[in-house]
Design goal:
Distance between the termini: 33 Å
Strand order of the largest sheet: 3-2-1-4-5-7-6
Largest sheet: 7 strands, mixed
Helix content: 25-40%
Bound molecules: S-adenosylmethionine
Number of helices: 8
Shape: globular
Strand content: 15-25%
CATH topology: Rossmann fold
Number of strands: 7
Length: 256
């Protein structure tokens, strides 16, 4: 997530979550509402759960707050790679009972078969390939994975078309990244080995923005510009009037 006009912001998109300025921008009311709603959608149809659970890529804790409220019989743990995001999560009194740790999803600091449920809401597209093996390793037999993963999908909505046009303009120096989202059908392949798919569904959230500037600002604050464009995000979108934007993501419930 690159804060435009912030000279201290890192240029490497893989490091984009580590800057304090980025974490502070992420922590907005609009983003809280968006990520809480996404977490609530991800829980729909999931079992009641008890035992031990973990939120991977918890960020500043929006998803963790919903997990605590909706599945209170679970002892929740949460990890994030970014110290800046975790610092904000640690300051929230509502998360005091959560074991929050700085760690990468590709090297989880937990013993084998530690968890009954592993959750990743809007974070798995940032993880490296090893994360799937790690998730499987730390899950108990019969445990669940709940993943909400942004996916690539052609859209006729104006905001998405504007961004597609920007991507096309960069196609010569463009290198595809997993952070841009997988195809819907690819999402179950994030998890290696056999499992039962209990839910695999496409969800499309549509938001309306006042103009191109607001759209870019919000996408930037959510890390989406870095995820899609890497180091060369558009600085302006030539578009007047309100703009709709679609967020397509796959919901996966898998039981191992
Ligand atoms: C969109 S944000 C947070 C999503 C969060 N679940 C929520 O609901 O607000 C994605 C998070 O994934 C974290 N992240 C990115 N790569 C990671 C990795 N390899 N391991 C752990 N966390 C990672 C980032 O630091 C960032 O906080």
């Amino acid at each position: 997530m690159r804060a435009r006009n912030d000279k201290a912001a890192p240029n490497n998109p893989a490091m984009c979550w580590s800057a304090q300025a980025c974490a502070r921008r992420y922590e907005s009311e609009g983003n809280r509402a968006f990520y809480r709603a996404a977490m609530a959608r991800l829980l729909e149809g999931a079992p009641g759960f008890q035992g031990q659970g973990i939120d991977l890529g918890c960020g500043t804790g929006f998803s963790t707050e919903v997990l605590l409220a909706e599945r209170p019989r679970v002892a929740w743990h949460a990890i994030d790679a970014s110290a800046a995001m975790l610092a904000i999560a640690r300051g929230k009194p509502g998360l005091a009972q959560v074991d929050l740790r700085q760690a990468c999803a590709e090297a989880l600091p937990y013993a084998d078969a530690s968890f009954d449920v592993v959750v990743a809401s809007f974070s798995w597209h940032w993880f490296g390939e090893r994360a799937g093996q790690e998730v499987r390793r730390v899950l108990r037999p019969g445990g669940y994975v709940l993943a909400g993963v942004p996916v690539r999908r052609a859209s006729r909505v104006r905001g998405n078309r504007l961004l597609a046009r920007e991507l096309l303009a960069r196609r010569r120096r463009f290198v595809a990244k997993t952070s841009q989202g997988l195809r819907f059908a690819e999402v179950p392949r994030l998890l290696p080995g056999p499992f039962r798919v209990a839910r695999h569904e496409l969800v499309v959230e549509t938001e309306r923005f006042a103009d191109g500037r607001e759209l870019l600002d919000v996408l930037d604050s959510r890390g989406a510009l870095a995820a899609i464009f890497g180091e060369s995000p558009p600085a302006v979108l030539e578009a007047a009037g309100s703009i709709d934007f679609e967020w397509p993501y796959a919901v996966l419930h898998a039981q191992i």
